[in-house]
Amino acid sequence: MSVTTAPVRPSAESVSFTAARLPRFAPALVGVVAAAAAGLPVLLLGWGVVAWAIVAGLVFLVALPLWARVVEGSRGATDRLVTGLVWAACIVAIVPLVSLLYTVVDRGLPRISSTFLTYSMYRTSLDQEVGIYHALIGTLLITLFAALISVPIGVMAAIYLIEYGKGKRLARWITFLVDVMTGIPSIVAGLFAFALFILLFGPSTRVGIGGSVALSLLMIPIVVRSTEEMLRLVPSELREAAYALGVPKWRTIVKVVLPTALGGIVTGVTLSIARVVGETAPLLLIAGLTTRTNFNVFDGRMTTLPVLIYTQNANPGIAETAGGIRPGIEIAWGGALVLIVIVMVLNLAARIIGKIFAPKTGH
Amino acid sequence: MAKSITVDSLDIYYGDFLAVEGVTMTIKARSVTAFIGPSGCGKSTFLRSLNRMHEVIPGARVEGKVMVDGQSLYDAAVDPVAVRRQIGMVFQRPNPFPTMSIYDNVLAGNRLNAKKMKRAEADDIVERSLKGANLWNEVKDRLNKPGMGLSGGQQQRLCIARAIAVEPQVLLMDEPCSALDPISTSAIEDLIHELKTEYTIVIVTHNMQQAARVSDETGFFNLKAAGQPGHLVEFNSTQKMFANPDNESTEAYISGRFG
Amino acid sequence: MATTVVADDTGRAKPRLGDTIFSRLALAAGIIILVALAGVFIFLTIEGAPGLVKPASFYGSASTFAGYVAPLLFGTVLAAIIALVVAVPLSWGIALVVSHYAPKRVATPIAYVIDLLAAVPSVVFGLWGITVLAPKLSPVYQWLEEHAGWVPFFAGPASTTGRTILTAGLVLAIMIIPIITAISREVFSQTPRLHEEAALALGATRWEMLRLAVFPYARSGMVSAVMLGLGRALGETMAVAMVLSAGGGISFNLISNTNPASIASNIASNYREGTPGKIQVLIATGLVLFLVTFLVNFAARWVVTRNERKLAR
Questions:
Q1: Where does the ABC transporter domain start and stop, copy by copy (chain B) (predicted)?
Q2: B5-97+169-254: what fold?
Q3: Other CB atoms closer than 10 Å to residue A213's CB: what's the count?
């Protein structure tokens, strides 16, 4: 930014729109230089790839702002530094996710087989194959019953908040407590179910439905929140149109409001299922552990997939060959892969449902 | 199949706020009555009080009398839902139900009330209502397509068809053309003309030419002063209102000096 | 056709049966939520209250409940704070990339990947933490002990397994990044476009625009995002229970094996050996955790609502 300072003709001062800027390829150039500079100690000291990436990143973050400071001044340097930091944050956060997904697939995939998915861990002889079938059934049933409890309560509570309770003190309290519920640690939900069931049925009660109760405590606030959001999006004109046709309020809600919001509600429910299907702590407390397949949530212990992963990892058993992978660890990773696939499929399903049922605007 | 409406010193409130004060008028059966007036003068509020849609808004209430066929709409024993079945309404913006087809939209009033009917009977109602709304020829080949897929003017006529499918006594229209283009507007105006042989029609409009074109009688609403409730300034035959109104402010409004 | 609008002859409009039933059902669902939450509190109190006043033998090396719960509470808070220190700058960075730095076709996949991170079950994070992260960090801890041992945090002796409170904190950090990012992203992108353009029109660089227009607007949202992340980190059970090899009392030494467990992980690891009396003690600690997370979440909501009112005015 330079306004000519020694005017020959003062009346015709010219204004310059060009300021000193780094060339457009500057970040790329600095990047290459940083990578090379970091490569030197790596070669000399024998560091690993991780160390190299960290050093290269740091060199880049220092070098580019320095160069910018010389050419563009301090404002430009700060801007470039922040831009670099922000992108670095992004990359740093994605690294563990990639590592995690890679590890799960890498270590879990070899364990997956039809036996693994269709056998339980109950065996009558030592050389019998084992699998996670009992945990799959446990997860399925406990989550199903949790959904059966939470969806009606959650959806009806949201209907109360949006359609009936507006402005009432009770509604404000419920909204507030739903907020509180979202923050309940899952272990506390588990303790609640545990305390409730041992109070009702004796101190050694372990039963699948207890797990469902604990999970629904975690699910209800999610269902209420997403349903509320969706009901709010239904235009009030639709409600008025139905009222003007002489339709009672409850039929308006059931036949007009809910169908219009259906896609969003189903998406919310699916996401809430995905959220609780991976819960471990509450089920560890109240659903217990078993090696057999149990189809009755109202009687007896039930193992779920996350609990299986946790306990197999904690008690991995003895490897067949010295230095080999212990069988429990293998099962844990296989279970982790299955669990992640279930969660991802649920998330994907939620997105697809949301797209399909998105309110049609026509035109 | 049409009734007259008698309104006697009606006050309309939102909570403690008096929105419209002291309206008295008689709306004739089988005719078109138009309400005109500046924005915020309470004409839509008054219209909504005629089929108890007003009280959908929390805290809204009225004092005074609205009589239809010798019964007071605001009697304690009256069911607002039953009132709305007899007095239908068409809104400012077309609002077909997005989850329903054209066919189901027309039948919505019957179906949502869980009325059982045979297929032939349903087909008959759909055809009659759509014909009544001058929409039959445009949509008869795509009755199962979503109602939201129609143009704005078609959607509004679909809403009229939906309103007349439940065979109401009275049809209230709240600025039914304000969201439409001129061609759709004239289609709706023609329709209003045809409908008045069978229905009592009350229409709120911002467009004075429209009031002059479609209505038999006109009411002019205005605010007494800024911050004061709205009231009915003059109610007369449309011919007289536009040629030689009794009230000065009516003349000022109609000739475009304010509002 | 006769006009009948009168419902019956009793003089009152009969409320429709369907309407009555349906609205009662909705109300009942709302009340169930109230009852459930009250139930959480009541049952934890009933079952946990006896745990507050047990004979000294129930509290391990401590002699009172306070002495028993204090190190656990310390462990809970310490792990959560490590998680926040790491997660907050990263999350804000990612949120800025998504809302302001990246072009849309890059921002959308990044946002998607971060949401994916939120979907990973905590038990899988725990598994990854002990098998992948902890062994990788172990040499780093050795190095820290040798070269930075004069800092109290890194006094050592360094854990050879890497299963320290620092590792647990890092795993927690990865777990709360999606929460903090999601909320911050929302508030960043809600900044009025006009404010941003006003700043840019004054010749501000992008960073100056963020400081002038975006941060002041988003401040309370950013704070509440952090608080909600904190709430999650305090209550997280499995990742800590699996990663941390606990044993020891209050200590700021982050890389050794002498760290206290967190409340939640202590419950998960000890409930199975528990006698009924011991379980009452664990439930009492759960009640403490519930109250702490309740306060944190309450504070977060309070910040948000206060700001909403301020903006509404």
A1: 5-248
A2: Rossmann fold (3.40.50)
A3: 25
Residue A181 Cα, gap to closest chain C Cα (Å): 7
CB contact under 8 A, A242 and B148: no
Question: CB of A169 within 8 Å of any CB in chain B?
Answer: no
Say whether both A45 and A146 belong to one domain: no
- Check CB contact under 8 Å for A235 and B81: no
Chain-chain contact of A240 with B114 (C-beta, under 8 angstroms):
no
Chain A contact for B73 (CB, 8 A cutoff)? no
- Number of folded domains in chain C? 1
Strand partners, B72: B67
- Which chain A residue is nearest to residue C298, measuring alpha carbons? A180
Percent of chain A exceeding pLDDT 90 equals 34
Chain B residues with beta carbon closer than 8 angstroms to that of A163: none
Residue A147 pLDDT more than 60? yes
Q: In this predicted structure, what is the pLDDT of residue C7?
A: 42
Residue C22 lies in a domain: no
Inter-chain Cβ pairs, chain A and chain B, closer than 8 A: 89
Mean predicted lDDT score pLDDT of chain C: 84
Question: What is the domain range of residue A308?
Answer: 133-357
Q: How far is C3 from chain B (nearest CA, A)?
A: 7
Say if residue A220 is in the same domain as residue A294.
yes
**Contacts with A, B 164-183, CB within 8 Å:** 166
Interface test mutation site (partner C, options A187, A215, A289, A304, max chain C beta carbons within 10 A): A187
Domain residues of chain B, as ranges? 5-97+169-254
Residue A224 domain flag: yes
Residue A172 included in any domain: yes
Angstrom distance (rounded) from CA B112 to CA B115? 8
pLDDT confidence of residue A124 = 75
Question: Model confidence over B50-63: pLDDT tens digits?
Answer: 989 988 888 888 99
Q: What is the CATH number of the domain that holds A253?
A: 1.10.3720.10
Could you tell me if B95 lies within 8 Å of chain A, comparing CB atoms? yes
The DSSP annotation for B240-257 comes to: HHHHS-SSHHHHHHHTTS
Q: Is residue A124 part of a domain?
A: no
CATH of the domain at C129: 1.10.3720.10
Reported ipTM: the value is 0.87
C114: which chain A residues are within 8 Å (Cβ-Cβ)? 93
Lowest mean pLDDT among A309-323, B116-130, B137-151: A309-323
Q: Is residue C272 part of a domain?
A: yes
- Between residues A42 and B175, which one has the greater pLDDT? B175
pLDDT in tens, B209-222: 899 999 999 999 99
Number of Cβ pairs < 8 A linking chain B and chain C: 43
Q: Name every chain B residue with its beta carbon within 8 A of the beta carbon of A171.
A: none
| pLDDT at residue number A363 | 37
* pLDDT tens-place string over residues C70-91: 889 999 999 999 999 999 999 9
Weakest mean pLDDT among A356-360, B148-152, C191-195: A356-360
**Look-up of token digits 């309560």:** A153
Q: Is B220 exposed, middle or buried (0-12, 13-18, 19+ CB in 10 A)?
A: buried
Per the CB < 8 A criterion, the answer to whether B1 and B173 are in contact is no
Taking only the tens place, the pLDDT of each residue in A265-312 is 998 999 899 989 989 889 988 888 888 888 888 888 888 999 999 988
